Amino acid sequence: MPEQETLDAAREDLAEGKSPSTAAGEFVRQEIDHVREGKHGVKNTKQAIAIGLSEARRAGVPIGDNPNRKSSKKSTRKRAKTAKRGAKKTSAKRSTAAKKALKRQPRKGATKKALSRQAKSSARKRGPAKRSAAAKKAARTRAKTSGRKTARKSSGAKRAKRSRR
Residue 111's closest CA among 15, 20, 44, 65? Predict the structure, then answer.
């Protein structure tokens, strides 16, 4: 079950018009934090991301399936959809077994180094054009937000000076 803070942050992101993947990032961050706190472990960074994304889907964030995966047959998708509707609650035995298995996993998948390696490898797969576009977009948004912060800082400093007089 995701924490209330995470749900609120994701809802806020969606309300601000940010993409669903940004909202889902909140759940991934929470999962990484859980591993770092020692609540459970993960085999690798991808597993932590997968857990976070599945939590986001359960919470109602409209993320699609993995676009890199080959799509299954129409009949299989239809069967899966109907199975999902009538899905039974996971038995206590199975859920405790799953939790125990996660707790046995190592914690290295959530280290700064592992996350960095994962980000770099996935960026490499995207190709140079997409990487360049992402960097340009990041620079644009960074310029917007950093300008706001400095403006806020300077106005705050001015107010503080006035109040001291």
Answer: 44
The DSSP secondary-structure symbol of 71 reads: P
pTM above threshold 0.85: no
Per-residue pLDDT tens over the stretch 32-77: 999 999 999 999 999 999 999 989 988 999 988 776 666 777 787 7
- What CA–CA distances, in Å, run from 85 to 39, 117, 126, 158? 31, 38, 35, 59
Q: How far apart are CA 113 and CA 103, in angstroms?
A: 21
Backbone angles phi, psi at 89, to 5 degrees: -70, 140
Q: What phi and psi, each to the nearest 5 degrees, are found at residue 72?
A: -85, 175
Q: How far is CA 132 from CA 18, 65, 117, in A?
A: 21, 25, 18
Question: What residue type is assigned to position 61 of the chain?
Answer: V
Q: Which residue has tokens 């993409």?
A: 19
Structure-token pair, residue 159 = 């107010």
Residues 6+ apart with CB under 8 A from 115: 32, 45
DSSP string for 85-144: HTPPPPPHHHHHHHHHHHHHS-SGGGSHHHHHHHHHHHHHHH-HHHHHHHHHHHHHHHHH
Residues in the chain: 165
